[in-house]
Amino acid sequence: MTRNDFFQSIHQIWCQQWQIKQLDSPQPQIIKRDDWSDFALLWTVNDQWQVVSVAVPFYEQVVVAVAGKSRLTSADLSQNAQHNRVEFTFLYPDDLKTPSISDDYVVCQLTTDDAALLEALTAAVSDAERDEADVGIDHALVYGVLYQDQLVAAASMFPWGGFADLGVLTHPDYRGRGLGRAVVAALAKGVLAQNEIALYRYDANNHGSRKVSASLGFTPYMVRDRIDFTG
């Protein structure tokens, strides 16, 4: 598959999710969500096209904000709202880079038999890191980095919106050694072997995850801003 065909397939999956025909509208496209109550999601694809999913009570407010504009910011939708940004990156198969790490560490696939090892790792990180990474031993594919008998990094994948969504955790005492990159690379290789599309998304303030994504060859695709109107 060519690079263009690869990203066209990603466009098509997102269009299906958003229930729109195509992405090349000159203005942001608005989607009314009657299952939400107080927030909107502003999606910006390739720094070109935008889609706004918005709760029904704030639909008219967004329509007014969009009128006459070819591009929106979260502040255009609400000056006083709380904003949160997530970055989405995808891996074109030929771009995957495999980093090397010290022979002291072993990268391997994990199973449910390794649940206790992963529990110990997740207990060593903050609640926010654990929630963002969303690494689970019961996910479709799980890899880890072992140092002696300790799990010092882990990454897992679960199906999400037509993609293979990747998350990673590294023990605080073992950061800065390339272990996160190594385990994500192993997981990504496993995902590609299953002919799935690898998605790596992270909070825009997570500079470590951004570095991992870029170093492994993931391509920035989209940013998603969440606007909570209730503050």
Q: What ranges have pLDDT less than 50 throughout 5 or more consecutive residues?
A: none
Round the mean pLDDT to the nearest integer and report it: 94
Please compute the radius of gyration using only Cα atoms: 19 Å
* Structural class designation: alpha+beta
Shape-level CATH architecture of the largest domain: 3-Layer(aba) Sandwich
Overall geometric form: globular
Question: Helical proportion?
Answer: 25-40%
Strand content: 25-35%
What oligomeric state best describes the polypeptide chains here? single chain
Number of helices: 7
- What is the CATH top level name of the largest domain? Alpha Beta
Overview of this structure, please?
- The protein is an alpha+beta fold.
- The protein has 2 domains: 87 residues, no CATH class; 127 residues, Aminopeptidase.
- 30% of the residues lie in helices and 32% in strands.
- The protein contains 7 helices and 10 strands.
- It has a 10-stranded mixed β-sheet with strand order 1-3-2-10-4-9-8-7-6-5, sandwiched between helices.
- Strand 6 and strand 7 form a beta hairpin.
- Helix 6 packs across helix 7.
- The chain is globular and about 60 Å long.
- The mean pLDDT is 94.
SSE topology sketch:
Elements (H helix, E strand, L loop, with lengths): L2 H16 L10 E5 L5 E7 L3 E7 L3 H8 L7 H4 L4 E9 L14 E5 L5 H9 L3 H7 L7 E7 L2 E11 L2 E8 L8 H15 L4 E6 L3 H10 L2 E10 L3
Parallel strand pairs: 1-3, 8-9
Antiparallel strand pairs: 2-3, 2-10, 4-9, 4-10, 5-6, 6-7, 7-8
Helix pairs in contact: 6-7
